[in-house]
């Protein structure tokens, strides 16, 4: 258990003891001392989940191949439901995803192999608007944040474009 107490100058003091049970922060009767405990370590920021993939179950693995800017190919086993952006970032490929996968930029632009393009759902208006800003747009261009892996696109191959463009409000001043 850790204790938080207010010192005379308003400075917080944390003791070093810690337990692994959960109880909300409570004030000790008649004092300015608070006690709390948690199932996770004390931290002032949230754990970032971006790029953390679920390990595929045995027999349910899907495969995706990225063709990198230098022409090399990398194939990964992934789970259904993972986006191409999350897969690329989890494997340290050069795909930025500046908007965090919210379809508000074109930095996760990929060029889909024509053999797989028709198996994908149609892009919505937001995705088409962002694709208009993408560098090197092709007939089979899509945003990696909008493509979720499924059995319909097992073995999909996507190429990363030679460069990306991150357009922001400062570009128009």
UniProtKB/TrEMBL annotation:
Its cofactor is [2Fe-2S] cluster. It is found in: Mitochondrion. It comes from the Eukaryota. GO terms for molecular function: 2 iron, 2 sulfur cluster binding; electron transfer activity; metal ion binding; oxidoreductase activity, acting on NAD(P)H, heme protein as acceptor. InterPro entries: 2Fe-2S_ferredoxin-like_sf, 2Fe-2S_ferredoxin-type, Adrenodoxin-like, Adrenodoxin_Fe-S_BS, Beta-grasp_dom_sf. Keywords: 2Fe-2S, Electron transport, Iron, Iron-sulfur, Metal-binding, Mitochondrion, Transport. PROSITE patterns: 2FE2S_FER_2 (PS51085), ADX (PS00814). The keyword Metal-binding applies. GO terms for cellular component: mitochondrial matrix. Its main location: mitochondrion. One of its GO terms (biological process) is iron-sulfur cluster assembly. The keyword S-adenosyl-L-methionine does not apply. Residues 62-164 form the 2Fe-2S ferredoxin-type domain. Belongs to the adrenodoxin/putidaredoxin family. This is 2Fe-2S ferredoxin-type domain-containing protein. It comes from Torulaspora delbrueckii (Yeast).
């Amino acid at each position: 258990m850790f204790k938080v107490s207010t010192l005379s100058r308003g400075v917080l003091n944390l003791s070093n003891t810690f337990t692994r049970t959960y109880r909300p922060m409570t004030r000790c009767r008649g004092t300015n001392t608070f006690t709390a405990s948690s199932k996770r370590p004390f931290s002032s920021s949230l754990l970032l989940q971006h790029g953390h993939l679920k390990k595929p179950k045995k027999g349910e693995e899907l495969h995706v191949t990225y063709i990198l800017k230098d022409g090399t190919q990398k194939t990964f086993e992934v789970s259904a439901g993972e986006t191409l952006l999350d897969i690329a970032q989890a494997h340290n490929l050069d795909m930025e995803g500046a908007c965090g996968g919210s379809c508000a930029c074109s930095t996760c632009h990929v060029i889909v192999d024509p053999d797989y393009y028709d198996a994908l759902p149609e892009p919505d208006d937001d995705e088409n608007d962002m694709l208009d800003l993408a560098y090197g747009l092709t007939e089979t261009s899509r945003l990696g944040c909008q493509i979720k892996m499924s059995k319909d696109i097992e073995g999909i191959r996507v190429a990363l474009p030679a460069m990306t463009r991150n357009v922001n409000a400062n570009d128009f001043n």
